[in-house]
Design brief:
eight-stranded parallel barrel; binds 2-phosphoglycolic acid; TIM Barrel; globular; 8 strands
Length: about 260
């Protein structure tokens, strides 16, 4: 069986001043030594990225941007390009988060174009997908996440599989306190694994990490991580507090 190293990333969204970001980043950096069996990342707001990268540069803490523009430069007021993010020293970029899809009109084609450019720039895309409540209730979950996954991976070679992270985040579970049950999560993760094997081939598809996201907290992480196709988590609210995020990172490995 392919061993996939778990990856847990905190998505701070539009929160934290530079001082707050540095405080949180320092606390996480300090516990990393005892957590060698997982990859740990944070995704601070753009305003704090530069300082945070400098603060953690001597550690293994991953620093991810939350968003990018697809063009390398030009008249796109307010946007940040992929070369600019690489220049900052980020190693990962979140793509297609449901909040970006909902409020900023992002779609699978855009995510696909950005994923290719992020990889070409030597960074790693964290591709976020997930169904809305109405879609789940209409039994369209597999159709929706299958389409999002295939769209995001279109034209990517199997050789990049290890550089890609997929984050399955049911929209109805984000910021609502409603986590998918462990069985609900595994059901979709298992489906996504099957799709990855088909799209990238059996060997490469088995190496892609699939994170779960949506109201992950210290109380529910262990059960989620015990599922065979849950390879990590994308954590929003609970990653803004050092104690709760560290509680998540120290999930029960035996569960
Ligand atoms: P949440 O957010 O943990 O606050 O539900 C997860 C996410 O949006 O990545």
């Amino acid at each position: 069986m392919t061993q996939r190293k778990p990856i847990i990333i905190g998505n701070w969204k539009m929160n934290c001043t530079i001082a707050e970001s540095l405080d949180l980043a320092s606390k996480l950096r300090d516990v990393l030594g005892g957590l060698r069996d997982i990859e740990v990342g944070i995704s601070p707001p753009f305003t704090a990225l530069s300082e945070v990268v400098k603060r953690v540069q001597d550690s293994d803490l991953i620093v991810a941007a939350q968003h990018c523009h697809v063009e390398d430069g030009g008249a796109f007021t307010g946007e940040t390009s992929i070369p600019m993010i690489a220049d900052l020293g980020c190693s990962h970029v979140l793509l297609g988060h449901s909040e970006r899809r909902q409020y900023f009109g992002e779609d699978d084609r855009g995510v696909n174009a950005k994923a290719k450019k992020v990889l070409a720039a030597g960074m790693r895309p964290v591709i976020c997908i997930g169904e809305r409540l109405s879609e789940r209730e209409a039994n369209q979950t597999f159709e929706v996440v299958g389409r999002q996954l295939a769209g995001a991976l279109e034209g990517l070679p199997a050789s990049v599989a290890e550089q890609i992270v997929v984050a399955y985040e049911p929209v109805w579970a984000i910021g609502t306190g409603k986590t998918a049950s462990t069985a609900q999560a595994q059901e979709v993760h298992g489906f996504l694994r099957g799709q990855l094997l088909e799209i990238l081939g059996a060997e490469a598809g088995a190496t892609v990490r699939i994170q779960y996201g949506g109201s992950v907290k210290p109380e529910n992480i262990s059960g989620l991580m015990a599922q065979p196709d849950v390879d990590g988590a994308l954590v929003g609210g609970a990653s803004l507090n050092a104690e709760s995020f560290i509680g998540i990172l120290k999930y029960d490995r035996q569960a």
